[in-house]
Design goal:
By secondary structure, this protein is mainly α. It is 77% helix and 0% strand. The protein has one domain (26-87). The longest helix has 35 residues, at 26-60. It is rod-shaped, with a radius of gyration of 24 Å.
Length: 88
């Protein structure tokens, strides 16, 4: 793939250099992926806690929006689930 319009050069060696550089980043990519999974799991766990505490508080306090706690917990869990996609 030596294209004279692109200024010549050996594209095979450039691709090999790029692949070698990408291989060197693999440990960091794995580390960040693991942190992403841990963060997503923490968000789902905190969403469950917010749901439980929000429903317990809505029964004790008759505020303007009694269902806000469980709704926020559900939103938090959904966002935690969405964090799994970039971690893959």
């Amino acid at each position: 793939m030596n294209d004279p319009s692109m200024g010549g050069g050996d594209m095979g060696s450039a691709q090999a250099a790029i692949l070698e550089s990408m291989k060197k980043t693999r440990p960091w990519v794995m580390f960040l992926s693991i942190l992403g999974f841990l963060g997503a799991g923490g968000m789902v766990l905190m969403g469950l806690i917010v749901m439980v505490m929000g429903s317990a508080m809505s029964g004790a306090l008759k505020g303007a929006m009694p269902g806000l706690g469980p709704a926020l917990g559900l939103i938090y869990m959904v966002l935690g689930g969405l964090y799994v996609v970039p971690s893959l």
